[in-house]
Amino acid sequence: MITNPTDPSTENMPTADEIFSSPLSSVQLTTRPLLMQLLERAKFLNLAKGAHAEDLRDALERLKSEIMAARLDAIDLSTVIKLVLDHLAKNGITNARPLVRAVLGELLTAPAAGKTDTSSSTITLTDDEPAVEPVNGATLLDETAALVRRYVVLPRAEADATALWIGAAHAIDALQLMPLLLVSAPVSECGKTTLATVIGGIVPRMIMVSSLTPAVLFRMIHKYRPTLIADEVDSWLSDDNSELRGIFNAAHWRAGAVIPRCVGDAHEVELFNVFGAKLIAMIGRPTATMLSRSITISLRRKTAGERVEPLREHCLRADLAPLRQGWRRWVLDHPEALRTHEPTMPAELPVNRASDNWRPLLLIADLAGGDWPARARAAALALSGVRVFEDESVNVMLLADVREVFRVRGEPEYLSSEDIIVTLRALPQRQWSDWNNGRGITPSQFAKRLRDFGTGPHGLRTRETRTGDKTGKRWHREDFADAWSRYVPADPPHSQQTNKSWPSAVISDPQQSTDVARPETPVQPVFTRVVAEVAPSAPDPDAQKGSSTEGAWLDL
Fold this sequence. Notes:
By secondary structure, the protein is an alpha/beta fold.
């Protein structure tokens, strides 16, 4: 998390002076299993009355090493020190406070007297403790998807894709490829910031930003390994900022996510790894290269009849801790399957970057089980197969529309530029009639955009063709065949399939993994406090059209 002095979770955090003053009755701290385990591993709890000062110092040094390895945030660190002092006091080990402060006190950051606290600029990320009991993956996905739809109006396919992406973000250490999650809206007030905030509350090691520079981006990812939530991207990721866009693109694939930069006065070359889970939220769409690396969630303004709950941002991250802990436990329980399972891709999904993007999400669905393998593949077709043209560049869209022109005109052997242009301008929901300030796309613009799809030195172009007693330049349908086969996928033959059409197998090869969570695993929902009404694999109307401890007062 990014620590903030005005955040309710940190505003009562004790300073070093408060920690080592007596009594400290104004600060309530919570004993957590992880913190007690640190004390046990350091053998600190073995100290009793009469212990030698050297034994105490050795135990404190071991504890210091454990604390540094666990990368505790400031609140947990202050809690550990309070537990240390409490144990010493209860066991009659007197005059130990100066030694504790000497060994552990330097780990605390105390604001200087008379100066403003600047901790809001400090990034402190911690991993959630895993849930104590095993968790069913299908239940996690059910609750995650339901939670998203509680705050944002989303169709089922997009909510399912969002839940699967969140699961992949938790499993990022086992993945070789991770798509961007693009949250896009045509105008403001469609809920993109709300959705980004909700997702940020569920994913691990979240950093949410509203602006970035290339130098900050690659250093931040390399150092902190966050799940990056980037909002208002349309205001700072312009066409001129190709370096920033290039870093986002490179982060798509682990093997290629390396950025070399010169650092230091000696200009030594250093490699920065930028692979990780990244969400970008924006009005409009980014460039075609980023779109091709994205799972796209398209938002619309809700109608008067659509209802969502208001979002309480100030306590969202804390409220969602059980759900994050459940995801962490599930990932830790399936390390081998996450690395080795190869999901079967839907036959209707084009074998291109779209299928690459969906591979990690289908992996999560297969291992989760229940009806999620079917739901995930249905979402993949809904968001990739049916909408493939709107996610391609203008040139590919034009190439696809030329194929439609030949169909509309009865699949002739060839057509003139004029015939193609007239039909293009008449196609519904296309922009060809709006080009050139409403005058429409011209034959020269049409030819220029299609040229690079052909082979040979001249590319795709017209041919001299004799028709009756006349000769003229014509576009031949057979000349487009190669480009259509390479860039324009065939129409999905079963785009209206329902979830029931899919096989119910959890994974493609059951022998690949023996630790896949089965639906019959006796587990309980991990997040019933916020999504109380959710049942595992509940039907959806859209398909039709640790052990806990109470907070304790530690008086020293």
